[in-house]
């Protein structure tokens, strides 16, 4: 008899990839402009290259944006659904995440863990709201990845479209909706102050 644990899947690629950007699309090697500073006659441009990112926008917003950007303005189409930026989150290689070196020199992490640790098992089971673990079926050639919902940002819509050739997969509806639900639950949480002793 096969156990429920064996049947658990946390990610699956969609067989259909649309010409537009979709919720749950995963891109590889995306460069983000972090900062521009000017000192005298020198211009310093800081960039971050993320090995993987995932698009977090709602599917309906992405579809409306694509349609309105590809249709001429009319009396009924006022281009009020166009997006300026897209919400994305970095995806980290799970093994690098466990070493605490997944941010490289950008952010220092003192968190290291082993797969057999209780917290890591909870992360893998997607029981900790801050993280979402992605393991694709063996037949897919995708590494184990993790999203840390604490770190998300926006990217210029046109820039991501210029990098659409770097999209490596779209996720199946069920799995991308699960990520969206968990992301919205995490960012809508209510932080309560810690009680202090007087």
What number of structural domains do the residues give? 1
Percent strand equals: 25-35%
Question: Structural class given helices, strands, pairing?
Answer: alpha+beta
Straight-line distance between termini: 57 Å
Sum up the overall morphology in one term: globular
- Name the CATH architecture: Roll
- Please describe the biggest sheet, giving its number of strands, its sense, and whether it closes into a barrel: 7 strands, antiparallel
The counted number of beta strands is 7
Could you characterize the architecture of this molecule?
The structure is a single chain. The chain has about 200 residues and is of the alpha+beta class. It has one domain (about 5-70, about 80-185): SH3 type barrels (Roll), CATH 2.30.30.110. It has helices at about 5, 60-70, 95-100, 120-125, 155-160, 175-185, and strands at about 25-40, 40-55, 85-95, 130-135, 145-150, 155, 165-170. The longest helix is centred in the C-terminal third of the chain and has 15 residues, at about 175-185. Mean pLDDT is about 85; it is low at about 1-5.
